[in-house]
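Reopening this one. Same input as before:
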Amino acid sequence: MALLLTEQDVARLLPMDLALEAVEEAFRWQGQGKVVNRPRVRLKVPGGLLHVMPAAAPELKAMGLKAYATTRGGARFVVLLFSAESGELLAVMEADRLGQMRTGAASGVATRYLARPDAETVGIYGTGWQARSQLEAVSAVRKIREVRAYGRDPERRQAFAREMAGRLGVPVIPVERPEEAARGASILVTITNSRTPVLQGAWLEPGAHVNAAGSNALERAELDVEAVQRAALIVVDSLEQARLECGDLVAPIEQGATRWEAIHELGEVVAGNHPGRPGPEAITLFESQGVAMEDVAVAVRVWERARAEGVGQALPI
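Same output, byte for byte:
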């Protein structure tokens, strides 16, 4: 029988180290041509959208999809996980927490492979739900000594800084101006819903690594053209999906600041098919759209732990 796993179950079963392990493995298989990933499909209805993301991981003997609905009332997420051998439905799991953790883990994997080994200062743009797992993942792969956080709402900014300082055990300093978050930062994260750039290329320090994880729509851009132009290496989670969704790259490509042929997938770096960071002073950029293979890889790990620990409710289907 299939397992039903709630948000509470997923939160209990999915620590960041497990999410990082699963997502890194998925990118390695991507670089080796051992995973099937398809871009997000969006269906519009009056007042909302249905989003569907399928992937198959033969190495895990699993396949599945994440579907979620967004309306004025919020968003609802679910993953369906199937056996790639029998077609049996293995699990139905709520997936808001799962999505938060895998998005953070993708930035963590990119940071592990692209940031300088001595990177220790983070600047983050955005103080919402997704920002928390971004800092957790980055802190898991680098010895972070200080974080500077910028968000538009001063109260949320202060609350986020207090919470994350307690969780990570490092100073998290709320800053009032966006350029202050970038000053001296060796790792930068953008995780906002802004339609206009929040991070400018003029603010980037030599040797910085940027995880741009907030925009997955062509009409939204968190980075200005100069930020993309200054990057010596640009990687994406999926070239196919980035062409459809990466708003950060639309203007730079139109203006000749970069071209699709110069952009690589993170899987190439993880699998050892690309050397990664060009040098210590180079600026690197990871454009994260959020891809289905991450969801499936993480969902398998959650399902395996659920079975081993007797968590979840059996569904008679």
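So the earlier flakiness isn't reproducible anymore. For the record, Residues 116 and 280 are 7 Å apart (CA to CA).
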